[in-house]
């Protein structure tokens, strides 16, 4: 099948070059969104058949299969998070001829006379926050964002302010390409958080005074459980633990018994590509994680409160790295449950304080669990920090 995919702007009177006008004139089957139909209806030949692009897309592509050719209208550049990508994915053998227009972020950059070769692009159109959060954590100085009706400029600004990313200016473009309603606005995040913007819109964030990205957070800076500093993993141990988890090559980390959230937060800041699920049995943990993740700018950590052994993990992303920060005497049961979902190349790591009886017992339980579950242990790493008790970092894999 052959697809002619034509990019258009939001202009009420589209301009098409002669080559495209001839394709439209000779076409029989046309398709696009409802808004696209409104814009191009006057160009379609008499008797033209139109297919609205609506979900579910399976039904749309089933209708396409009854034809040899189709003319598709799409917004901006059809290869920029656009419908041409969908065609390539669903019908890889199809022939595609493209006639792109400027995409919305290009148009906004042009209006601002802003070079965009160094712009980090994030789409929040029908997508969750992780890629946007990653751009913030990595201190991208120029971020182009495609929005939707949920991820509005105000919602984006509010999230950035919640997590302390206030060193940005927001440039919003509404109805780009439509001379009757196009509007460009430059404002602070505090101003954007209280404003309502017409849809469709997109935005560019420019960093003005970004805080340095930290490597290691002193334990005294965290909000603590009942003020007990001994309950938190010390910074050097925390960083060595992340090294043991091999996070540069991992995709999903579970933190079981997160307490203050220090390990999850450090992992999020150092390796923002890693998806994190954190578990804690104490109800106070939820507020601590919320406070600390905002204090240090670590959005996107998913919290689960309750006994890990009682939590339904069947719908959670499969981990390839698991840190066990607390086990309440049920280490073997926890490790056995983790094995039901751990990826084939996954690993588990825990820390044991060698001089405290309960933790010495943890080391023994870890050894026994590894033997009973058929896990391969790596040589333990013993560390002493100042006058604190020695810590042993334990690690095993399938």
Please indicate the count of domains: 3
* CATH T-level topology of the largest domain: Rossmann fold
Catalogue the unreliable spans: none
Helical run tally? 13
Percent helix range = 25-40%
Highest CATH level, the class of the largest domain: Alpha Beta
Give the radius of gyration: 26 Å
Query: Beta-strand level of the residues, as a percent range?
Result: 15-25%
Compact description:
The protein is built from 13 helices and 18 strands.
Describe the structure.
With 398 residues, the protein is an alpha/beta fold. The chain has three domains: 2-101, 3-Layer(aba) Sandwich (Cobalt-precorrin-4 Transmethylase, domain 1), CATH 3.40.1010; 105-207, Methyltransferase, Cobalt-precorrin-4 Transmethylase, Domain 2, CATH 3.30.950; 219-397, 3-Layer(aba) Sandwich (Rossmann fold), CATH 3.40.50.150. The protein is built from 13 helices and 18 strands. The protein has helices at residues 18-26, 34-40, 57-64, 83-90, 104-112, 130-137, 153-162, 189-192, 235-244, 262-270, 284-295, 331-339, 357-373, and strands spanning 2-8, 29-32, 49-52, 69-75, 95-99, 120-123, 142-146, 168-174, 183-188, 201-207, 252-256, 275-280, 301-305, 321-324, 347-353, 376-377, 381-383, 391-397. The strands form three sheets. Strands 11, 12, 13, 14, 15, 16, 17 and 18 form an eight-stranded mixed beta sheet that branches. A five-stranded parallel beta sheet has the order 3-2-4-1-5, sandwiched between helices. Helix 9 (235-244) crosses helix 10 (262-270) and helix 12 packs parallel to helix 13. 36% of the residues are buried. The mean pLDDT is 94.
